[in-house]
Design goal:
heterodimer, A: mainly alpha, about 0% strand, flat, disordered N terminus, B: about 550 residues, mainly beta, 4-stranded antiparallel sheet, 6 helices, 38 strands, globular
Chain lengths: ~400, ~550
């Protein structure tokens, strides 16, 4: 039996600022492009998270009933700090996130995950030496991993230590941990003066990420240095093409956001459909987020469904799709995407708690209970989850 | 304005090396007390009120002492008493006298850029001012007065335009100074969206003045000097007008590839900066992208404001420094030859300072140690933002990076005198030795405040050499020449320019710190392309070199 929630919809007004660079809202990109702002995308994800909390609040209100069970513990645990930190990191609140991870490492000094996430935050904050120390700590605890090696390579590059950057990035190039591994390796070679090898890796980079204008620009510059003017001209042309596409996404997103805020749904839909690129999962995800931000959930479904088809490993796309079904109260449809998102990010409290809520709404209490317990473990201070858990636990013995 | 959200690089340990230049603001003592009016005192409702203007060191009376020309703005609601461009005559005793009225230069309006050069080759420097809605040209009459000859010269533009960067440049090497002008946006007080009107009029969540994004960009213009006091618009013919419109600000002209023909570089605000390569046939190719001077290392445009040209690594090639908006670094480009530049900002250590909106800049040897240092001024365009974001203050300090050699710089947060940390909303900067004591002083425009005049009291004992060029076949101002001085194991080049920094004009006498070297050789490439070499010149003097005649005067300053 499906439960009927009384979810109050609230919409936070979106006002992108002039310096926002819209792009792929993936966490990897945020981490890798520490020097670019992707606030709009993240603002939307943050909004999504808030909406989950609102939804949970209403569920909790339904679930309120006297309970003689003890209140959930407020005691901090490393997992809880990691979960909070993960959410803050997701929202680009690096400083606050780093504090959470540092609390986690204080509680569990050997928690490699906490050290790793802390290092990622510190890198985004430009605290390169501190980031390096944390990554090195992870290495001490867990041995070398390609992710840590990648980040240390990038830190070497930022420190102009090209030989070390090359050594490290080369070591992970066979199975690159992130799509831009080749890009950074190529840049390291070019910066070290080895233009020929730099070109070889940048050529691989543009094959792997053909729409990354940065890679085309760097490759064009490298060709130019090598006197390969024709090749350079070709790459400059591609750079211009993809940069313009990127800018067009920025422009379209601003226009769509403004239209959704100020125009009728039909008129806004006409404006926003310019963003519907059936071959660009990042753009489609962003479009879905913009519709979701405006409360136009039915319109969000098409782009998000298309996005997960194109990029089945995109946590954001699955999460947003699940959220959209959830907001449409199509809990059976929400379940699959949320399960997928939770598999991709098991520590993402927002996703886990929404999956628990979905299962609860579907009446699958047996499945909901462990998920909500996990959510509660990730965020022990969430009273709404605790209330629902109490109710579920109270019902368990009766079955 | 484009910003990249850049976080500062960590600062290394201080070198602990002494810095021998100390700066004191002596503007008030020198008599520079009139504020430079630029929009309302407490806010900036329109972008035109936020951009400020340039300043110039000019020896208008040829007495060998630098005089000062200060531009001015106004306020939208109407004329402001005392707001005018001002000419100050150097009294040769550390003070200046306001001779604006006597010189016929009283004028109130929205002035932005200035370029100084002897366009009519009569031996006296003339002044061109870029402005909204019309630019103007003053011919120096040679008797302490100027005449507005804009209309007679054929420089009145159709409609209202916002001229910003401007520079004299003899692009066709005919011995006469031509004129390049960049433009910012199409501006009309009545048509500009109001503060906070749309997403482009917000910064950090605070409603602010609109632009440049969202406003109509403009193309630059080039005028050819006909030699009879008039100019002809050759924007199309020269292909300068073939570029995409952009938000152009400072323009500089210098021979960046050493082929004897001057390039023109334009710092653009949130659109790709432009580098016009001089083809030597009266036309230009825009090669900013290919040169590496157009966008940042990731291929994105930056908010270009000011441009400095100098040779920071003393390899004999002219390098480039461009300033940008807050949360971005200034960009230092090393000239690798053949008009290609490498962005060495982070490697050089400049990444530690992305905090402020940055404007007028220079690559200048401030302590005469033989290594050119880096200086720029700061100030926000959005005073309203400071209330919510104290980390983005309206008034900012002066930024000084001392050159450590080996391509490395160190920011001096203190130790260079009291004037460095004083905060102002500054824009234009000019560098020059106003007191003729053998070091470089700094003149700064501050919005709605009197200017700053930073007197340099350099005590390190480093030697120096000043070089003044007089053209004969070349234009008389020798604008476009490149002088390379060889001292010790260094080889430093400087260009004679008619404008640089942010919309400003520096001392045209080139100043080379020589460090311990007591003698130097110099190589001159004149604007005509002719080369001249002078050997074994003694340090600590100003030499004047006349094209084809060698050194015609040597002057030692009394310190």
């Amino acid at each position: 039996m499906m439960r009927q929630p009384a979810i109050s919809l609230r919409h936070r007004r979106l006002r992108p600022t002039m310096d926002q660079t819209l792009g792929a809202p993936s966490i990897e990109r945020l981490l890798l492009d520490g020097w670019e702002t992707t606030n709009l995308g993240m603002a939307l994800v943050r909004f999504s998270f808030l909406s989950i909390l609102l939804a949970l609040a209403s569920l909790a209100a339904q679930a309120q009933q006297p309970s003689d069970k003890p209140q959930p513990t407020q005691q901090s645990s490393a997992d809880a700090h990691i979960s909070k930190g993960t959410q803050l990191l997701h929202d680009q609140l690096y400083e606050a996130a780093a504090k959470e991870f540092e609390q986690a490492t204080a509680l569990e000094p050997n928690n490699a995950e906490a050290h790793f996430e802390d290092a990622v935050c510190l890198l985004a904050l430009g605290r390169n030496d501190d980031a390096r120390a944390q990554f090195e700590q992870v290495e001490k605890l867990k041995g070398s991993s390609r992710y840590v090696t990648y980040y240390l390579g990038r830190l070497d590059l930022l420190a102009n230590d090209y030989p070390s950057a090359i050594k490290r990035l080369n070591a992970v190039a066979a199975t690159p941990p992130f799509p831009d591994t080749y890009f950074h390796l190529g840049v390291a070679y070019v910066s070290s003066g080895d233009t020929e090898k730099g070109i070889a890796w940048l050529e691989k980079a543009v094959k792997l990420t053909p729409t990354d204008y940065r890679a085309h620009y760097r490759l064009a510059r490298a060709y130019s240095s090598a006197g390969r003017e024709q090749d350079a001209a070709h790459e400059y042309a591609l750079y211009n093409q993809y940069l313009n596409q990127h800018k067009s996404t920025e422009t379209d997103a601003r226009a769509c956001s403004e239209a959704l805020r100020t125009q009728s749904a039909d008129a806004a839909h006409d404006v926003c459909q310019h963003m519907f690129d059936p071959n660009d999962p990042e753009k489609l995800t962003l479009l879905g987020q913009l519709y979701g931000e405006a409360g136009q959930f039915p319109q969000a479904l098409d782009p998000l469904n298309q996005a997960v088809k194109l990029d089945p490993d995109s946590y954001e796309a699955w999460h947003d799709l699940g959220l959209t079904y959830f907001r449409l109260e199509k809990y059976a449809d929400a379940r699959g995407p949320l399960e997928k998102a939770a598999r991709l990010r098991p520590q993402a409290y927002g996703t886990v708690v929404m999956l628990g809520a979905t299962l609860y709404m579907l009446g699958d209490d047996a499945a909901a209970l462990p998920v909500l317990e996990h959510a509660h473990q990730l965020n022990p201070s969430d009273e709404q989850t605790a209330a629902i858990l109490d109710k579920l636990r109270a019902e368990q013995p009766k079955k | 304005m484009a910003t990249r959200g850049i976080k500062p690089q960590p600062r290394g340990k201080p070198s602990g090396l002494p810095f021998h230049a100390k700066f004191t603001d002596v503007a008030a003592k020198a008599g520079l007390t009139a504020p430079v009016i630029y929009g309302p005192p407490d806010r900036m409702d329109y972008i035109i009120e936020s951009m400020g203007c340039g300043v110039a060191f000019i020896d208008y009376d040829n007495d060998g002492w630098l005089d000062i020309f200060l531009l001015s703005g106004t306020r939208r609601e109407g004329p402001v008493a005392g707001a005018t461009n001002r000419l100050y005559k150097n009294n040769r005793d550390g003070t200046f006298t306001d001779v604006t009225a006597k010189a016929g230069l009283v004028r109130q309006g929205w002035a932005f850029g200035v370029t100084v050069g002897d366009y009519d080759n009569d031996g006296f420097d003339d002044i061109f001012v870029s402005a909204w809605p019309q630019n103007y040209l003053y011919r120096n009459n040679g008797n302490g007065t100027f005449t507005d000859v804009t209309e007679a010269a054929g420089l009145i533009q159709a409609g209202n335009r916002w001229g910003t960067g401007c520079t004299w440049v003899d692009y066709d090497r005919d011995g006469r100074l031509d004129l390049f002008i960049s433009h910012y946006v199409a501006f009309d007080f009545d048509k500009i969206p109001i503060t906070g009107k749309d997403p482009a009029c917000n910064y950090k969540g605070v409603p602010v003045n609109c632009g440049p994004r969202g406003l109509t960009p403009e193309r630059p213009m080039l005028y050819h000097n006909n030699g009879d006091g008039t100019f002809t618009d050759v924007t199309a013919k020269s292909k300068v007008g073939a570029v995409q419109p952009g938000y152009g600000l400072t323009a500089v002209a210098a021979d960046l590839d050493g082929d004897g023909w001057q390039e023109i570089y334009v710092a653009s605000d949130s659109t790709p900066s432009l580098l016009f390569k001089n083809r030597g046939d009266g036309t230009f190719d825009e090669v900013g992208l290919e040169s590496g001077l157009s966008v940042n290392e990731d291929g994105r445009e930056q908010a270009g404001m000011g441009i400095a040209i100098g040779d920071f690594d003393t390899d004999g090639q002219l390098d480039v420094l461009k300033t940008h908006f807050a949360e971005d670094t200034a960009a230092l480009y090393r000239n690798t030859g053949h008009l290609e530049f490498e962005d060495v900002t982070l490697r050089a250590g400049l990444g530690v300072e992305p905090r402020y909106v940055s404007w007028g800049d220079g690559i200048v040897d401030l302590d005469n140690d033989g290594l050119p240092d880096i200086f720029w001024v700061t100030g926000s365009t959005f005073p309203e933002v400071e209330r919510m974001h104290p980390e983005l203050p309206h008034k900012g300090p002066r930024i000084l990076f001392r050159n450590l050699g080996g391509g490395k710089f160190e920011e001096l947060l203190d130790g260079a005198g009291p004037a460095i940390n004083e905060v102002h909303a500054s824009r234009g900067v000019a560098f020059g030795d106003f007191d003729n004591d053998g070091d470089i002083d700094i003149l700064i425009m501050n919005i709605n405040e009197p200017p700053s005049l930073l007197r340099n009291d350099s005590r390190g004992g480093g030697h120096w050499l000043k070089v003044k060029l007089v053209g004969t076949q070349s234009n008389r101002s020798a604008i476009g020449a490149v002088v390379t001085v060889i001292y010790g194991d260094r080889k430093q080049s400087q260009a004679v320019m008619a404008a640089s920094s942010y919309l400003s004009v520096s001392d045209r006498r080139l100043h080379f710190g020589l460090g311990a070297a007591a003698t130097a050789d110099i190589e001159i490439m004149w604007p005509t392309g002719a080369r001249e070499t002078l050997k074994g010149l003694k340090a600590d003097q100003l030499i004047t070199v006349k094209e084809g005649a060698g050194v015609i005067s040597q002057e030692r300053f009394s310190q």
